[in-house]
Amino acid sequence: MPRIPRRVRVGLVTAVATALPLVLLFGPAGSASTETGAPPERQLADSIDMRNVKRHLEKLQSIANTHGGTRASGTSGDDASRDYVAGELRGAGYQVTLQAFTFPSFRERTAPIMEQVSSHRATFTPIPQGSNAFGDFASSIHSGSGDVEAAIQGVDLTLPPGPRPNSSTSGCEAADFAGFTRGNIALLQRGICTFADQARNAQAAAASGVIIFNEGQRGRTEVFTEPLDQTGITIPVVGASFAVGQRLASPGKVVRLKTNTESAPRTTYNLLAESKQGNANNVVMAGAHLDSVRTGAGINDNGSGVAGLLEVARRMATVQPKNKLRFAFWGAEELGLLGSKYYVSNLSKTDHRRIGLYLNFDMIASPNFAYMIRDGSAGPAGSTEIEKNFARYYDVRNLPHISAPLNGRSDYDPFMRAGIPIGGVFTGSDGIKTPEEQRMFGGQAGRAYDYCYHRPCDTTTNINDTALTVNTGAIAHAVQTYASTDDLPARHTARNPSLQPPRSRGPHR
Q1: Residue 493, class by beta-carbon neighbours within 10 Å (0-12 exposed, 13-18 middle, 19+ buried)?
Q2: Strand 323-330 relative to strand 372-374: parallel, antiparallel, unpaired?
Q3: Dihedral sign from CA coordinates of 303, 426, 329, 44
Q4: Which positions are catalytic?
Q5: Where are the beta strands (DSSP E) in 421-500?
Q6: Do 318 and 92 form a contact (C-beta atoms < 8 A)?
Q7: What is the Cα–Cα distance from 139 to 112, expressed in whole angstroms?
Q8: Helices (H) and strands (E) in the chain — how many of each?
Q9: What superfamily does domain 22-94+275-484 belong to in CATH?
Q10: Of 460, 465, 470, 508, which sees the most CB atoms within 10 A?
Q11: How far apart are alpha carbons 117 and 16 in whole angstroms?
């Protein structure tokens, strides 16, 4: 996730937080006896057996290794990941259900073509879908098909790029296309809005094709694409490197752009595990997305959240909670939060009202981490109290922390839009760590929190063990707190469709 300006909240100590002893959270999985209510303060958070968390990560890596290097939605690696998590939860005594939903699968019938056919002719190298190869461009998932040859027309480009990543507004509003020549190929720059928004606006302006190139700052120069999320795009849409975009932005370029694609519905699942005990009118939900992108095993994104939440769920099975616990492992997050959107949109009014809050855990162990807490002040009523609860966890351990924006880029978003209190922790994706954050958390300023974000190198070697340990404890702290309280954060009792979160930037950009 790119760094976005945010209010900074610092814990009791702002020194570098890299030396926390991992042994702090190690303890035998069976050390807490079954009891009514939660264990004493800090007992669960400080007794999670991290060997089990690492075992879960290693299993997800092994699954990817034996299923084509991926755990993406609709693949056998996705199925095997879900089977593993379900087996662990059933073994712990949970009632496990699968919620089926369809999503539009995508494939390329033939490799895409992009050629500069004006002066200084050039043929650009495509990256096939699901490939780990390097190249100049790739089709966006759910791109339409077409074979067009037309002039390139840049739309609101920022060249050279601004100093701050994720600042370009190219093609994000329909007004950007005022004066656009019908039939031209729109050249757009990655920025503050989704590729779907950009492509939709370009198609509405009668563009014959769309090329979206990476923004150009450090860490944002290679080919980057993003699913178009069932937007009804019928024209060719590709993502390109910054170098290609910069080349095509000069005047007089004519390009041939060809895509030959197919989208068809497929079925995947949300996995839901519920405690047998607890007040069914006060449901505490905690979730993590289970799928990876096609280009890798997805061990930090989001094996880390899955492993931490799974082990906390296993430990909470030894407790009789006051409130019912529901753990969710979402499908198709990387395709546009599809699983969590489906779940929330299909809640009955009664089930909606019964959910007291939702906690989201996505990328909790980035190698160049910062401890980030989702900004409750921008969420529904009750979200600020959740943020404060996470802050207390870090504060009593003398760990610094900062606020992360609610930008709609993970599975908390559908709950937030429905007026349900939300919260969570996060350690950063492809945003760039600042010098101030380096002073607080260590690591390296000027580099991405997770250089391997959405890349083949997101493997078990891409995990920061300190962050994994601390944030698994944060999950345990929050789940334990809300499982045992009689006083969940105040919330709206009805759907709140008027709540408008900040513009979505798509899943984990």
Answers
A1: exposed
A2: unpaired
A3: positive
A4: 333
A5: 422-426
A6: no
A7: 7
A8: 11, 16
A9: Zn peptidases (3.40.630.10)
A10: 470
A11: 54
From CA 374, how far away is CA 128, in angstroms rounded?
A: 35
In DSSP terms, 254 is beta-bridged to 151
Q: Is the peptide bond before 464 cis (omega within 30 degrees of 0)?
A: no
Report the predicted TM-score, pTM, of the whole model to 2 decimal places: 0.76
The CATH number of domain 106-263 is 1.10.760.10: no
Per-residue pLDDT 10s for the chain (509 aa) are 323 333 333 333 333 333 333 333 333 333 333 444 444 546 788 889 999 999 999 999 999 999 999 999 999 999 999 999 999 999 999 999 999 999 988 889 999 999 999 988 999 999 987 665 789 999 998 999 999 999 999 999 999 999 999 899 999 999 999 999 999 999 999 999 999 999 999 999 999 999 999 999 988 999 999 888 766 899 999 999 999 999 999 999 999 999 999 988 899 999 999 999 999 999 999 999 999 998 899 999 999 999 999 999 999 999 999 999 999 999 999 988 999 999 999 999 999 999 999 999 999 999 999 999 999 999 999 999 999 999 999 999 999 999 999 988 899 999 999 999 999 999 999 889 999 999 999 999 999 999 999 999 999 999 999 999 999 999 999 999 999 998 899 774 434 433 443 333 333 33
Helix (H) or strand (E) run with residue 330 in it = strand 323-330
d(CA 224, CA 242): 9
* Residue 198, strand partner residues: none
- What is the rounded distance in angstroms from the CA atom of residue 405 to the CA atom of residue 383? 12
Q: How far apart are CA 157 and CA 172, in angstroms?
A: 11
CB 127 within 8 A of CB 183: no
Give dist(CA 72, CA 81) in Å, integer. Answer: 10
**Rounded to an integer, what distance in angstroms lies between the CA atom of residue 370 and that of residue 438?**
8
Q: Which helix (H) or strand (E) holds 151?
A: strand 146-154
For β-strands 372-374 and 422-426, DSSP reports them as: antiparallel
Distance CA 213, CA 264 (A): 27
User: First vs last Cα of the chain: how many Å apart?
Assistant: 5
Residue spans per domain, the chain: 22-94+275-484, 106-263
CA 359 to CA 285: how far, in whole Å? 6
Query: Could you give phi then psi for residue 66, rounded to 5 degrees?
Result: -95, 5
Report CA-CA distances (Å) from 173 to 211, 295, 390, 411, 505. 16, 30, 36, 25, 14
Task: Using the Cα atoms of residue 167, residue 173, residue 178 and residue 181 in order, give the sign of their dihedral.
Answer: positive
Return the H-helix or E-strand segment holding 387: helix 383-396
